[in-house]
Amino acid sequence: MLWSALRPSSLPRSRSFIYSPRLFTATPLVAPSAVLQTERTLAQTIGRPSVRNQVLFALFGSCAVFAYAAAWTNIETDEWLEKLTRGRAPRTWPHTITSLDMKNAADLALAQELREGLKNVGVWTSGLGMATRNRIMYIWANVAQSYLNVTEGKRLCWKICLLNVGVYLAWKSRRFYPYMLRNFVHDPLSGRSITMLTSMFGSRMAVVLALNVFFLDGFGSSASFHLLQRQDRLPEGQLEATSRYHFLAFFISAGLFAALVSHITHLKVLYPRLIARLSLPSNLPQPKPDTWASAIRTPAPISGTRAFFRSWFPSGQPKLRLTSRTGGTGALYALMTLTALGFPNAEIALFYPPDYSVPIQWAVGSLVLLDIVGISRGWKFFDHIAHMGGTAFGAVYYVYGPRFWSWLRTVIADPSPVDVK
After folding, report:
1. What is the DSSP string of 340-370?
2. Are strands 25-28 and 17-20 parallel, antiparallel or unpaired?
3. Distance (Å) of CA 125 to CA 111, 140, 149, 179, 318
4. Which of 295, 317, 323 is nearest to 382 (CA)?
5. Is 11 helix (H, G, I), strand (E, B) or coil?
6. What is the 3-state secondary structure of 194-236?
7. How far apart, in Å, are the Cα atoms of 239 and each of 84, 96, 101, 114, 216?
8. If 0-12 CB within 10 Å is exposed, 13-18 middle and 19+ buried, where does residue 250 land?
9. Contact (Cβ atoms closer than 8 angstroms) between residue 105 and residue 76
10. Backbone φ and ψ of 325, nearest 5°
């Protein structure tokens, strides 16, 4: 009776206990398997977020934007073909209509629209003073002339740049900041898909915005011109009145693919490693590397000199956190890659001194190498994984993109009417 009263019956019987008659306490023996069971329970409780919705969104979004672009390209091409052939006899129109003829006609129509716009500005400012009115019309004429002189691809790039500036101004507004934080930042753990698209435009930092505008204005027009040239060189000989829809579809699809690569890498590579590190007890020593891959992930002891340089260029590897992304740098890398492959002998130079030109392949290769180093070092200022995804998209599209675009336009084109007898 006395022994049964002193026995701690509330403790589980499945564990082994050491009984001390002096202290009347029970000390459990925790087996190593219990620690492993705790780790598995934490990982199973938190789980791994699914990437199915994001994959489907990027896939169907790219298909939708390419289908829309191909349909409107066919529509405008048919319209300009009808305008140029209407009322013209073969002797007054001896040569075959080309894509360049339709683009020249579109530029003439744009010039007429800009002239009408200048007249409207003069009517709207008729009530102002002569000096103010002349200054406004002078500014409008210069802007309109600059807009008319550039290529169609650069005009679209300017519009995207204005959109980025507008998004940046919305970030700086206290009223719109909560809305921008919810809808223009892609968080890998949020489970949302639409932010993969909205986060492409604009940035919260002025430096990143300036870099996006600079690269988009420089490489965007070159990439658009390359797509136009490749379309003309195809043996099918498809007419194309405009190339802005093709360029827009390429830009959006490249941004979605880059965001998807970053999203999958964060959730399928970085997130499991973060959970595994959090699951380890703090009092257990770090395991020694037993394979080549684990040896790379395990930081090696460094000297004082290397530690000094690492203090200036720190590694984000020990922190191992998931970061949100903003900005369309992945799409910009796709434009740079397409331009470097399309114009391998081109050189790039800054527009301010020193005016030193660099081969474009060296410049793009250096940026890709910098991203590889950033991924290995765990840098978090830029989304280097998205940069690599954009680079891969640009390289693949350089090889297969023009033929895919020609095939898609053929599929979407309206069939010729059949005569019913």
Report:
1. HHH-TT-EE--SSSS---EEHHHHHHHHHHH
2. antiparallel
3. 21, 12, 26, 37, 62
4. 323
5. coil
6. CHHHHCCCCCCCHHHHHHHHHHHHHHHHHHHHHHHHHHHHCCC
7. 13, 11, 10, 26, 27
8. buried
9. no
10. -130, 145
Q: What single letter denotes the amino acid at residue 22?
A: R
Contacts of 96-100 with CB under 8 Å at 24 or more apart are 97/239, 98/239, 99/228, 99/231, 99/232, 99/239, 99/240, 99/241
Residue 176 CB coordination number (10 Å) = 15
Q: What are phi and psi of 347, to 5 degrees?
A: -130, 150
Nearest residue to 239 (alpha-carbon basis) of 366, 67, 377, 96:
96
Side chain identity at residue 106, one-letter code: A
Kindly give the residue spans of alpha helices, DSSP state H, lying in 11-51. Answer: 32-46
Amino acid at residue number 213:
V
Whose CA is closest to 153, among 231, 98, 260?
Answer: 231
| Cα atoms in the Cβ-side hemisphere of radius 13 Å centred on 213 | 18
- Return the SS3 of 19: strand
Rounded to an integer, what is the distance from CA 378 to the centroid of its chain?
19
Residue in this structure with the two tokens 């579109």, named with its chain if needed: 106
**C-beta of residue 149 within 8 angstroms of C-beta of residue 205:** no
**pLDDT (tens digit per residue) in 158-208:** 999 999 999 999 988 889 998 988 888 888 888 888 988 988 887 888 888
pTM of the model: 0.76
With contact defined as beta carbons under 8 Å apart, do 169 and 233 qualify?
A: no
Tokens representing 230 are 């490749």
Report residue 393 as tokens: 């998209």
Do 220 and 388 touch, CB atoms closer than 8 A? no
Interval 299-337: pLDDT, tens: 444 445 544 444 444 444 434 455 666 567 888 999 999
Token code pair at residue 28: 């459990």
Domain map of the chain by residue range? 52-85+152-280+314-412, 108-149
Distance of alpha carbon 166 from alpha carbon 41, whole angstroms? 47
Rounded mean pLDDT of 91-96?
A: 56
Helices (H) and strands (E) in the chain — how many of each?
A: 16, 4
The secondary structure of 71-136, three-state, reads: HHHHHHHHHHHHHHHCCCCCCCCCCCCCHHHHHHHHHHHHHHHHHHHHHHHHHHCCCCCHHHHHHH
Closest CA to 185 of 172, 166, 201, 162: 201
